[in-house]
Structures are given as structure tokens and as C-alpha cells.
Amino acid sequence: MSSSPQHARRAVLVHFLVNGVGMGIWASRLPSVKQGLHLEDGQVAIVIFMGAIGAMLSLRAAGPLIERFGSRRTTQIAALFMMLSLLVPAVANGVVTLGLGMLLVAGGASFQDVGMNSQAVAIEHRIAKPIMSSFHAAFSIGGILGAAGGALTAKLDVSYKLTFVIFSAVLFVAVLIANRWLLDAPETASRDKADVRGRGGLPHRGVIIALGVVGLASFVAEGSAADWTAIYLRDNTGATAAVAAIGFMLFNVTMTIGRLAGDRLATRFGAMFLVRAGTAVAGVALAIGLVLRSTAAGMAGFAVMGLGLSIIVPQVFSAAGQLAPDRAPAALSLVSSISYLGFLSGPAAIGAVAHALDLRVALFIPAALVLGGSLVASRLHTAGDSPLPAAADDMRGAGEGRAGDVRAQQLRAGAEPGAGPQL
Q1: Same domain for 339 and 211?
Q2: Same-domain check for residues 168 and 220
Q3: Range of the domain at 351
Q4: Fewest CB atoms within 10 Å of the CB: 32, 247, 252, 379?
Q5: Helix 271-292 / helix 295-310 crossing angle, nearest 10 deg
Q6: Are residues 118 and 218 in the same domain?
Q7: How far apart are CA 75 and CA 396, in angstroms?
Q8: Total domains in the fold of the chain
Q9: Angstrom distances, CA of residue 290 to CA of 206, 242, 366
Q10: Residue 242 falls in which region: left (phi positive, over 0), alpha (psi -120 to 50) or beta
Q11: Alpha helices in 324-395 (DSSP H)
């Protein structure tokens, strides 16, 4: 079924939402799974590592496969597979089967991630205005809903097995309905198998790699906040367990708020300006919170960091896709692979440094990385035109139609060899 960009936009929002719900329910019920299968911490680490392997394999394979078969079909299949894979933990009987389940869940989620981001780039290109942040806001909301659902089912003493079965069924139906309205995007598919070159031949490859490095820095900070916020507030500032939990909640809330506002900000100021400002705000806020040491300062630092980080990854992904609109799946596969290395390895590295030195010292690492990301983004911004329209003067005071015309012209210019930002 063909779909208009507006219908497709709603369908892709559903995909981002259910992807977040699926990951949220998995993360929130993992302690129950650990208890039910009598796993040790080391075995849980193996399970998480299997998830990292699944994610990286999918991210590497996604670009060529999406280019070969198109983002519509591959996103449909990957999403349904991801929702069905949530059933594996329900039947797991030990670390081996649970590790396989984690590999499938993370692999399906990552493949769906590249596919739905490719759909988002195609929709954004057609309607000629920034919309990527709204999709990532849906993912954040989904993660909150999934975590809340996991907490509620645990509170009601619903077994984790039944929880996974229920959520898998509900999310599968939601995806099945949304799949009908995904965009038929010829620009994300090749009719000739010989034309599929993976990441080879990408225009602006160096810039896309640089964007991936910025995304990596952001994901290191985001992953570190997810795993270490509550522990830092409790152990290093003396906060109670309840207050420490509120600190992490504030981080998630500000992330969601920032993403809900991100599209309007991108329209006014441009993608690269947002990336540069967001990384600077995130790094400075975390550093100040750590220097001041108090619980209040730590909570404020993580909250403001969440606000700064919220606008980085959506704009990085959008910029990468718009730099190579005819090779968006390959561009997104490359930038995602680099970026997600930060989310997968960053928290573990922070833990190792914290064990050797101190958690407060270790948390200066993500602060420094995102500040470094700001320097990279500044270089991209000042060396040439940004991947998305950065000329606020062209937008301010203009009507929506004029803004769309300016954006469309800049996007077309950015797709040509030699246009767009340079390192």
C-alpha cells in the first residue's frame, strides 16, 4: 500500500515508540530474569555482551540489505522479528538460551533502528523540514513506557515470562498495523544487486565518520548516565536510594523534553548549531555538577546534560542521511555503527576506571568526550554549509512555504559531490 509522507510519518513514529517500549521492557525485567534463572553477575555480563554482538552485527549488515531491498520492506520484517524475539527470554532456561535471546532482541532492534531512521530521512527529505527529533522523542517515550510497564508488572507480581508474552503480542499487532503505512522509498533501494556497495562509494564519507564520532561521544555520555547516575548520587553524594532514582528520572525527562522541541530548534538554528550547542551544554553541565559534588548539583548536572544530549543524535543521524540522500541506509549504517560503540562500550569503560580510581573521576570522561564532540561539530559547521539548513537568517521571518523552499534547495545542494561540510 502506498502512503503519503504524513501517513508514513505516523507509522514511523509508531515504530520508534514500540522499539523503545521493547528495549524498556527488556531492561526493566532483566533483574527478574536474573533471579528466576539463578544467574550470577558474570553470567548477566555475558548475556549483555551477546546483545552487543547482535547489535553490531545488525548495524553492519543493515546498510547493504536495506539498499538492496528498500527501507520499507526491511523495516517491516525487522520490526516484526524484534517483537517476536521478545518471546525468547520467556522460554529461556539458562545463560545460553538467554544470551541467544539477547542477541536476537538487540540484533532485531538495531536492524529496525537503521531501517526506521532511513524511513525518517526519506520522509524528512520529502516534506522539507526537520522532523527527526520527534521520532527520537517517540523512542524516549517508548523507553519510559516500557520501563513503567516492567515496573508495574513486577509490582503486581506478574511473572517476567507472562510479561514478555503480553508485550510481544501487543507490540507485534501495533507494528503489523503501522507497517501498512510505511513509505515506499525508492531512494533507499537498488534495483540492481551489483549497485549495492555497502559503505563503499559514500559521498562525504569523512564527514559522516566525523558525525559518527560526535554520536559516539553523545552515546558514551547517555549510556554512562543510564548506568551510573543513581550509583553516583547514592555512593558519592550521599543521596538516598529514592532521591538517586529521581536523579535518573530527571535525566530521562529532560532528554524527552529536548527531543520534543528539537525539530523547531533545528528549523530555526540548523542541525550543526544544535549539535555544537548541545554537546557544549552537556559537557559543561556534567563537569560543573561533578566539581560541586553535592546531591543537588549532581542531579542538576545530569538533568541539564540530558537536555543537551537530547538534540545531538537525532541531528547527527538526520545530517548523515541528508548528506547522502540516495545512499541513506549505508550512511546511517556507518554513523550508527560508530555511534553505538559508545553506548555499548562506554558504560563498561567508565566502570573500569571507577574501579581503578573513583566514579566521580571516571564521569569526567564523558564530560570531556562530549566537549570534544563540540569541537568536531564546530569544525564541520565553520568549514562549509551544514548538512541541514543552518542559516537561521533565511528562516526567520519567512513563511513555512519559504522555509521549505530554502530547505529543499539546501538539501539538494548537499547531495551533490563537493557540496556540504568538509573536515
Answers
A1: yes
A2: no
A3: 201-423
A4: 379
A5: 170
A6: no
A7: 36
A8: 2
A9: 34, 20, 12
A10: alpha
A11: 328-356, 359-362, 364-383, 392-395
Q: Identify whether residues 76 and 159 lie together within a single domain.
A: yes
Cα 205-203-53 angle, rounded to 5 deg: 45
- Residues 133, 153: Cα–Cα separation, whole Å: 30
For residue range 364-377, list pLDDT tens digits in order: 999 999 999 988 88
Cβ(323)–Cβ(204) below 8 Å: yes
C-alpha cell at 110: 538495531
Nearest-CA neighbor of 83 among 175, 160, 152? 175
Q: Nearest CA to 175 among 78, 294, 271, 287?
A: 78
Statement to judge: residues 41 and 148 lie in one domain: yes
Q: For residue 388, is pLDDT > 70?
A: no
Residue 97 belongs to some domain of the structure = yes
Lowest average pLDDT, out of 195-209, 244-258, 322-336, goes to: 195-209
CATH number of domain containing 411: 1.20.1250.20
Does residue 156 lie within any of the structural domains? Answer: yes
Torsion sign across C-alpha atoms 58, 225, 168, 141 = negative
pLDDT of residue 1: 54
Give me the pLDDT at residue 270, please: 83
Domain end, chosen from 184, 215, 232, is at 184
CA gap 79, 13 in Å, rounded: 13
71-84: pLDDT as tens digits: 899 999 999 999 99
**Which tens digits make up the pLDDT trace of 242-294?**
788 788 778 888 999 999 998 899 888 888 888 899 999 999 999 999 999 89
